[in-house]
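chain below, 332 aa
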Amino acid sequence: MPAEGTAGAFLTSEGVAAGIPRRLLDSGQYLRPFRGVRATSPSVELVDRARDLLPLLRPEAAFSHVTAAQLHELPLSNAIERDDRLHFVLPIDAPRVRRPGTVCHRVLHERSLVEVRGVRVVDLPDVWVDLGELVGRGRPVGLDDLVVVGDAIASRLSSVQPLAASLARRVRPRGKRALVEALLEIRVGSRSPRETLTRVMLTRCGIPEPTLNQAIIGSSGELLGVADLNWEEQRVVGEYQGEEYHSKDDQQAHDEARRTGFERDGRSLLEVWKSDLASTEARRACVLRFAAALGCDRSTLNLANCEPRFFSSHALDLALQRDERWRCRREW
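prediction:
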């Protein structure tokens, strides 16, 4: 039991057993984060809310899905971030825990677990596979989201293999087709979601695969900088410029010095801004700009692939088949 005035959450029954009068537990002196739980201080951060739920959970429970991704500080879209419920996993034979603001996932396959800020959390590769359960029409996770999160995890672990191994251990996981397709596009080295989305847009359209965040050494042996995207053979560097950071005067001066260094070394530096990914016309123009710099034949490009991808190829094929069936029925 937490001492009076200290932080902590506990079951109401534990408070009664410790001698705290029920009327005091039901008074305003204690907070009620969940039914059957009392707390001595308000919970502001996600990890504090997670700790408030712990008294209701069995020891083998662990936070998962969106909650685990947030606790691991993975890059998530606004649609995913809007899910502020606490997700957790329990063994398939455990009683389901039901409380408002929580989602209980009873699972058959074991997950690798780690401790994050004092709470048990599903480990990174299994979090990525679990996000496949939230893929589909009307759900928050899309194909590009899986690639962005997968890039972040693979870069932290310095390998894509843990993601592939985690997916292989599951038997028919939800969202498997989207996960398998996303796995093909996940790379080690990306440092931001926008870098990932820029690379994926270019390569889907037929631009050659770049090296990610490579240190560029000039002909005199000096470090010219670290390139977000680098095509060494063509001596072309691509940089995604975040507006909040790269629009500042001091950073612009630094960027101009880097550009000068690259150009003196015989390299082309192509910048990509948020506006370059904001519309179909802008995305196509961006792809064509890189194609011209890299000497790619325009006839080999598929500019239709510059659009962001939410649905997997399998989901799109099913949608086309449904549309065709409905068309045939209307004509009949």
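The chain has a mean pLDDT of 91. Residues 9-42 form one domain.
thats it, cya
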